[in-house]
Amino acid sequence: MTEQQLTQSRDLRESQPLWLDSPRISVRTRNSPSMSHFDVIIVGAGISAALTAHALARPGQSMLIVDRREPVRGSSIASTAMIQHEIDIPLHKLQKMIGKEKAARAWQRSARAVLRLEEITRSLDISCSMRRKKTLYLAGDELGIRAMKNEVAQREKAGITAEFLSSEVLEETYGLMREGAILSDISASANPGQLTAGLLRDVVKRGAEIVSGVEITDLRNFGSDVVLATSDGKLLSASHVVFCTGYEFLKSLANKNHQIISTWALASRPQTSLPSWLKDHIVWEASDPYLYLRTDNHGRVIAGGEDEDDPEAFQSETKLKAKTDTIRVKLSKLLGKDIGAPEYRWAAAFGTTTTGLPLIGPVQGMDNVYAVMGFGGNGITFSQIAAEIISAAVNGGQDPDAELFAFA
Ligand SMILES: Cc1cc2nc3c(=O)[nH]c(=O)nc-3n(C[C@H](O)[C@H](O)[C@H](O)COP(=O)(O)OP(=O)(O)OC[C@H]3O[C@@H](n4cnc5c(N)ncnc54)[C@H](O)[C@@H]3O)c2cc1C
Fold it and tell me: Whose CA is closest to atom 42 on ligand 1?
């Protein structure tokens, strides 16, 4: 392989996501590693790498995290960070795609991952505004109320709590004029920059090295090791290598069931006048294009959607204004009040897969090389699942759900 061919190289975002203005999103890095061989090398320094590093860090084990950007400056800083167990593809639809038992396991695993993520954040005392929330999933043109009732029934059979809310209850309790909704537990929201940086700082404290500004340009197996070439002309080796490169995935893993598209988001000014219930809920719509929203702890509403299939559309300045204006109008209509001119507007590349499930596991044709990719609307939850599956594999075991997410 020649340079530039190993992972996709793309702009990941346009304009200024609000989290870039947060404190505690920086991590100490080195210009080059202190040695050339490590037990584990993780490529990428976003939320997937941070959680994988957290799961893999062991006393006495050497670990290098290497990113061509500064840590936490890829897609993770653009995320609206609604941490959901609800997968983009509803359970009753996923059952038809992969079978009832597997679909139920994927949803259950997702719910456990949200709880585990909260536990990790708490146990490390990461100050990232992690807050437990309920989810309102509003009926729309993709899922009407009959389908929503079926969805609730299927989730209950799978042991995942959900409640159908009629239009009357929605209006009375939330002041929302929609045909119906599913109310569920086990969601959260956080500041993704602070969460990622907090995890990375913890693994550095435990001995890991982070090198930024260096790209991995090639990889080969050599004996039982994996050898990596870097953009600064060095060779590194490791017993295990994990590619956590987000939407800049390994080119050899391009797959027709995995697409990169464009998405847009905004954040209102602090202390926007909002319904009081919104601080304890995240909201998304079963519509195409869809709208989703949450609040932050400064009283902003953060909302996104208006996705387009063109992976480069997010780079257009005209679209940034038009799409975020549309989000503002939809949001104001939903909440029954104008949220005012957004303080932040941004756009980014975004991943989708046909099943809504990520791709996690060993890279075929290579020994001891793993990749995690295919993250969509609940990418952060999936990063936690990826961390668990990869750490089981690196430690010589097999996660019981690994085959649900494996590269086919
Ligand atoms: C606008 C938007 C809204 C979103 N909303 C949500 C949401 O509400 N909830 C949710 O759960 N998820 C959401 N997501 C998805 C979630 O943010 C992503 O799944 C997650 O950030 C991906 O993290 P990552 O660590 O895999 O990738 P990244 O954060 O992009 O990190 C990958 C890193 O790999 C580095 N890299 C790539 N190739 C190489 C190489 N060859 N050598 C060295 N370094 C390399 C890159 O520089 C990059 O820093 C959203 C995403 C976007 C864009």
Answer: 215
